[in-house]
Amino acid sequence: MRELKVVGLDVDGKRIICETDDSSELFSVRVDDRLRAAARGDRVASNQTQMDLEVHSVLRPKEIQAKIRAGASVEQLAAAAGVPIERVERFAHPVLLERARAAELATAAHPVLADGPAVLTLLETVTTALVARGLDPDATSWDAWRNEDSRWTVQLSWKAGRSDNVAHFRFTPGAHGGTVTASDDTAHELINPDFNRPLRPVASLPQLDFDAPAPARVPEPVAAPPQEPEPVAAEPTPPKPARSRKARPAVPAWEDVLLGVRSSGGQR
User: What number is the average pLDDT over the span 200-209?
Assistant: First the structure.
């Protein structure tokens, strides 16, 4: 926004002549009720509504920077004023850099615990806590904005599963990097020395499929009861060899033939 200085009135007394700092250009401003009201310090002129003043106030560079410094985004201001984003960005860019620098400084500060400031920095503490809970510390984002009391609020955000998580800290610059204190329960859990506690665990959602039938449940095999060892049976006596039907009859001895004795032992 260019700044002009008043040179004087036009010859008819109805316009004010202004020029730039280098006197390279001249401008004329019509003297009307709004200009007279602005010169008197009136908030609302007779033909100007309060909404118009609020919109013009938002578009002033100082107002834009103040709202951005307080946490508003460029998109929010542009949408509220109904102006292109580029018109807000050129004034918001220096403040956005200031917010990013404040968030970076806060990560090097020391969390305040029950027994005093911790030895580790906020970034080291948060990284250890997230790793202990199985989360990726690189998938986080930091932001900061200045409150009405001129103190900085630092926000850490990350995604776990399908849920978006945020934690807020109050940053106080000072010696050795300054200090940070937890502003909500999530921040308290992050800087708690007991890193093994779960950070608001999210229950897994059941996967319902109404089209495909559920797979049949295969029964688990039941272990057979232990069997008692079978008694060792005595070895059976080998059976006598059966007499073959085709065996030849026994031949009587010679003395049996002379005495007339049969092979079965009887006499003739």
Answer: 50
Residue range of the domain that includes 153: 108-191
Q: Tabulate helix, strand, coil % of the chain (nearest 5).
A: 30, 20, 50
Residue of 102, 136, 140, 125 lying closest to 189 (CA atoms): 125
Q: In the structure, what pLDDT confidence band is assigned to residue 105 with cuts at 50, 70 and 90?
A: very high
In a domain, 127, yes or no: yes
Q: What is the 3-state secondary structure (H, E, C) of 125-136?
A: HHHHHHHHCCCC
d(CA 77, CA 88): 7
Residue 243 vs residue 83, higher pLDDT = 83
| Joined tokens for residue 139 | 């998938």
Q: Which of 192, 198, 186 lies closest to 120, judged by CA?
A: 192
Within-domain flag for 172: yes
Tell me the two tokens of residue 165: 């998580």
Which residues, including other chains, have CB under 8 Å from residue 94's CB and lie 6 or more apart?
65
- Mean residue pLDDT across the chain: 76
119 located within any domain:
yes
Return d(Cα 245, Cα 55) in angstroms, integer: 131
CA atoms of 260 and 213, how far apart (whole Å): 99
More confident residue, 17 or 250: 17
Give φ, ψ of 65 to 5 degrees.
-65, -35
Number of domains in the chain: 1
